[in-house]
Amino acid sequence: MRKNTKQKIILSLVLVLVMSAVVSCTKNEEMKNSIKDVQKTEEPISIDLEIIEAIDEAIKWKIKEDEIGEWEIISIQRDMMNIPVVEEDKKDTSSIQKNKIDIQKIHKDRMNILESYLDEFKKVVEENKGEFEDVNDYSRLLLTATALGLDGKDVLGYNFVEKIYSDGNLVGEFTSTAAYGLIALDSKGYSIPEGENWTRQEIVEWLLSIQNEDGGFGYEEGADSDVDMTAMVLQSLSNYQDKEDVKEATDKALNYISENQEEDGGFITWDEDTSETVSQTIIALTSLGIDPKEDERFIKEGNLVDKLVSFKEEDGGFLHTYGEGNESDGFATEQALRGLVAYNRFTQGRRHYYDMDDVE
């Protein structure tokens, strides 16, 4: 992974959320049943073949590079619900079949990935006795457990929900910590008992309090605005749009992102044209119900989705940034996978990436 300035910041603040290989589970057989239940869904509204192929190739690249971690598992599970069912008597006429996309094989392969990962989940949680380094770990663990159909309050006997709302460092230090903590708590509407360290209102109010005058958010209070961080905060505020102050802050943040978008649809972040910024923005917009390919605020000469796909390499991975000799990057590919799944869910009328009320 490249050690440029931006990635050092991201690695120090956010990478703990995305690159670890730790996840929670209950009894192995119960977990397998949960995975099978999650895939049950109605017929999709639409199918974007290019996106389906890009997701599949990114997952295959991750497997080849032996980089299947928690965020990859979450994205695979969230996309399982998007895999369309092709009836046997319609296979010959389906656009999927004509484009040689074997949906049944994709489904089977992803089920194998999820099931083969279960023993490792259980092993790591048990070996650590449910104790991990900080609140960022628990936010990621709770999201993973929830995506897999588990009760985040009882993962092998450990309450990851409580670990988040009771942590004194959840609010007041790093922006991403508060944002992802709120995202995790909201993923399944987990309740916070009275008298705990933090309420949802306090987390939201703190995030609003650190918004910069230009509408953006920095990695901590007083830091310069950054599109990546602004997009992450918008993801966390997406469930509170009925509140006037949140809606006002959201509109300001969206304006900041729009004003900083380049003509080709991407962003220059810390002097680099990065795919990660595009991925996070797609997740933010779709969380807010905004179509990144249709909303005129985010369409210049190019749009966000086409821009993200432009970072895709022939091997299926995604670049961090363009440049001669640059190769597919694990961090960039994971975030691109998340962005693609978020967009795929949006086009099919699903709940947004982090809204896991559709998980049984």
Largest sheet report? 2 strands, antiparallel
Low-confidence stretches: 1-28, 36-45, 86-94
Radius of gyration over all CA atoms, rounded: 19 Å
The CATH topology comes to: Glycosyltransferase
Distance between the termini: 36 Å
Q: Please state the oligomeric state of the protein chains shown.
A: single chain
Number of helices: 16
Order of helices and strands: HHHHHHHHHHHHHEEHHH
DSSP strand content: under 5%
**Domains, number:** 1
Strand order of the largest sheet: 1-2
- The CATH architecture term is Alpha/alpha barrel
Strand tally is 2
Derived from helix and strand composition plus strand pairing, the structural class reads mainly alpha
Q: Helical content, roughly?
A: 40-55%
Q: For the residues shown, what is the average pLDDT? A: 86
Outline, from the CA principal axes? Answer: globular
- So what's the CATH class? Mainly Alpha
